[in-house]
UniProtKB/TrEMBL annotation:
One of its GO terms (biological process) is bile acid metabolic process. Keywords: Oxidoreductase. GO terms for molecular function: oxidoreductase activity. It comes from Pullulanibacillus camelliae. Transmembrane segments: none annotated. Belongs to the short-chain dehydrogenases/reductases (SDR) family. The gene is fabG. NCBIfam families: PRK05653.2-4 (NF004203). The keyword Transcription regulation does not apply. InterPro entries: NAD(P)-bd_dom_sf (IPR036291), SDR_fam (IPR002347). This is 3-ketoacyl-ACP reductase.
Length: 260
């Protein structure tokens, strides 16, 4: 069953890219959606888009690395609709791209906190509300969690994405008793703001000898970066009862980019 009628979802990083497309897709399938993003990337426009499609959404301006704010945003959704069925821990940054010897400890921390600690926080604060009825948690990792993507410069990002994979599997094991499924999505290059923000100055990358592959990607399947809407279809499937026997798995969505 792929309808999400009567279900409530929380999506982090919902103001842009994969999170935005997924929030809209879940709403189209009938879910009510809590939209979590930074204040400056507020999700008001996404809320309006969902409402224009006849759906319901609430916005929560939240830094996903702040435990108090994450707990509050979960509560906001539960207070609004009385339940929580789907959590999509998706917010993330590429962070500082630099060779390891030039990467500052604070830059390492920022990437790990924004991508990995945030995933732990979203799951942690959702569990009490999902325990009774079960549900589905989805985590956006990356193909970079399993291999390096462009030689070097993204050690912190890759470590955070590998951490999300390991954490997601442990969560799947631990939460199976509550019928909460946990799955990890590993996209290849997807056309969103994340790559533009990091790789906007290609000359800088050349200076530190990082081969530039983004944003074109080089997928054997389509020879171009994937679209957020293609990832949103997978998020919808993993959110729905159509995937009721799938948990603790990594799903690569990359047009075979990771096989190159
Ligand atoms: P995006 O930049 O379009 O969207 C990411 C969103 O997360 C933004 O709206 C941003 O404001 C939000 N965000 C960042 N830090 C936050 C914080 N501290 N608190 C709250 N919100 C925060 O990028 P995207 O490509 O849609 O990225 C979504 C996820 O997909 C990320 O985890 C990213 O690592 C992953 N991913 C992306 C690609 C790609 O090629 N685009 C590939 C693999 C994995």
């Amino acid at each position: 069953e792929t309808t999400l009628q009567g279900k409530v979802a929380l999506v982090t990083g919902a103001g842009s890219g994969i999170g935005k497309a997924s929030a809209i897709r879940l709403a189209q399938a009938g879910a009510k959606v809590g939209l979590v993003d930074l204040k400056e990337h507020h999700s008001e426009k996404v809320k309006q888009e969902i409402e224009s499609l006849g759906g319901e959404a609430v916005v929560s301006d939240t830094d996903v690395s702040d435990p108090t704010r994450v707990e509050e945003s979960v509560k906001k959704v539960v207070e609004q609709w009385g339940r929580l069925d789907i959590v999509y821990a998706n917010a993330g940054i590429n962070g500082k791209v630099a060779p390891i010897e030039d990467l500052a400890p604070e830059e390492w921390d920022q990437t790990l906190t924004t991508n990995l600690k945030s995933t732990f926080l979203a799951v942690k604060y959702a569990i009490p509300h999902m325990k009774k009825a079960g549900g589905s948690i989805i985590i956006t990792s990356s193909i970079n969690g399993n291999r390096t993507f462009s030689g070097f410069g993204m050690s912190a990002y890759s470590a955070s994405k590998a951490g999300q994979m390991a954490f997601g599997k442990m969560a799947a094991l631990e939460l199976a008793r509550y019928h909460i499924r946990v799955n990890i999505i590993c996209p290849g290059a997807i056309e969103t703001n994340i790559s533009q923000n990091t790789f906007k100055d290609k000359k800088d990358l050349e200076k530190i000898k990082i081969p530039v592959k983004y944003p074109e990607g080089s997928q054997p399947l389509e020879h171009k970066a994937g679209q957020p809407e293609q990832v949103a279809e997978l998020v919808h499937f993993l959110s729905s009862d159509a995937s009721s026997h799938i948990t603790g798995t990594e799903v690569f969505i990359d047009g075979a980019e990771s096989l190159l």
